[in-house]
From TrEMBL, chain A:
Pfam families: DUF3325 (PF11804)
InterPro entries named in the record: DUF3325 (IPR021762)
Entry keyword Transmembrane: yes
Protein name in UniProt: DUF3325 domain-containing protein
Residues that span the membrane, as ranges: 6-22, 43-66, 72-92, 122-140
Keyword terms: Membrane, Transmembrane, Transmembrane helix
Automatic annotation (TrEMBL), chain B:
Signal peptide: 1-30
Name of the featured protein: Uncharacterized protein
Species of the source: Novosphingobium beihaiensis
Swiss-Prot/TrEMBL keywords: Signal
Domain of life: Bacteria
Amino acid sequence: MSITHLAIFVLSLLGFAGLAIGTERYAPQLIGFKPAKRARKAFWILGWLLLAVALMLAALTLQTAAVGVTLWFGWLSLAGLALVFLLPELPWQKSAKAAPRRAPRSKAAAHDDKPARKSRHWIGLSLLAVTVAVCMAALLRVETMPLHRDDAIEGKAGPWSFALAEIDRDPPEVMHLGVPLKAYRIRFCETCDLDILRAYLKVNKPRALRASGVAFGGNRWDRDVEIQLPSNLTGDSELWLTVVGKDGSVHRTSWPMSRVSPGSVAWFEQQEKTR
Amino acid sequence: MIPVRYALRPVCARALALVLLTGIAAPVLAHEPVLKCVLLDKDTVRCKGGYAEGEDAPGVNVEVIDYAGKTVLARKLGRDSTLTFPRPDTGYYVLFDVGPGSQAIVEHDEIGPPKSRDMARWMRN
């Protein structure tokens, strides 16, 4: 995965470099001399090709094409920025700096200017470094989608199959009145989805249809819910799913909490011990 | 090149702020009903309802239903968002019913005397 990201970044950087060499203005700044017109044209085409290859790589290898395109834009921005900051640092740029096109306003002013420029330079570089670091940290933190994790449950309620998982595997979130809450996500199979009116979730077996728990939000595809967990929850407590179809039929299924939310069960055990 | 570099500085700062903000923001599902019940003494139960983010829910329906399915008590939460009722003799559960698909349920076996650790004002007589 990281290799893919690195490849997208390097390809974008090379692509931009190609585009720069392809222009009359930036070629001398980047490589120190102006290539022949035909060579510049070739570099220009190569640059676009490399950017396209980076896009293809991103769209085909990352989770979905949409994610790929978005990440490609991100890496593109970083590559562009890197080039912008790199250009003035190239050794053959120094001579250009030493001989400015504009004459300095006065000697004193030019002298005053120097420290300020130096600090701006460092601010710019540190901003870039922080941006890269934050992007890297965010990438490392990217979690698999809940329903694609190994612990997601593939189940069936009546005729409808579905996948269910807790949204995160952390302990429950303790909210108002000290009540622990846990969020879950469900997705019914493509052909079943239209048949579902509502789905409800609750810990412990519902004692009446109207006491089936909290309804999953959303009318299609990924439906989320956040439910209150009972204060005496154990690994044997059952999580009950009630599915009501548009045809009025009701189907129920359940799992032990130790199967669905082991992290939360461990948290309750810990609470019990410290009591 | 240099002016370009300086012109980009505010853009960089904004992009950085955006990255930081989106990175920190966690998924939020607000307005979930929550219900907590305690035994004030061995014959009296007090429940307090509200929403996960900390709001109270005065006037919301609460029902106490026994295990035979009979509604023992149907009231609304008081102005302090609590309801006090005599403890039923049989098995029961408390249904805090905000609206269709939005509810919280507490079973009688969860209801005990408040723990000294999380003793709040409303849990006292």
